[in-house]
Amino acid sequence: MYTHQTFLDVRYYETDLMGIVHHSNYIRYFECARNDALVTLGLPIKEVEKRGIMMPVVNVSCAYKAPARQGDRLRLESVVKELPKARLIIDTVIYGPQDQVVCTGSVTLGFIHSNSRKPTRAPEFIVKLFAPFFK
Fold first, then answer.
1. Which amino acids are annotated catalytic?
2. According to DSSP H, which parts of the chain are helical?
């Protein structure tokens, strides 16, 4: 299992008139956590794309548990529970102050060839990066 933590501060413009984070921003937070996790693993998206592969989002789920507010420091924990094969699933839990669960969700990424846009299995270079976490 691969796990990674990312920290984000809630900015004013991410909140609504009630002073809480607008629901659409949690999907952006998932993306920030996912990007940071992949970069830390040695898999920046630009590198994947240079190798002729794109990773489109094919599914997102999000469950809101408690409001986050402007100024909160959020801890995002991303987890990959399965070695990527035809897809890469990244589960994320967002924690607010006092480690209260704010939001949980999952993002599923597919793999396609950049030139043809046809689906493919996870490329070997991606599988090799994740493999040590699944022994």
1. 16
2. 25-41, 45-50, 124-130
Residue partners of 15: CB distance under 8 A and separation at least 6: 21, 22, 69, 70
CATH topology classification for 2-134: Thiol Ester Dehydrase; Chain A (3.10.129)
Mean pLDDT by 10 residues, the chain (135 residues): 98 94 97 97 95 97 97 98 97 97 98 97 97 94
For the chain, domain boundaries: 2-134
CA 123, chain centre distance (Å): 19
Q: How much is the pTM?
A: 0.94
> How would you list the strands of the sheet with 2-9, edge to edge?
2-9, 73-80, 87-95, 101-110, 57-64
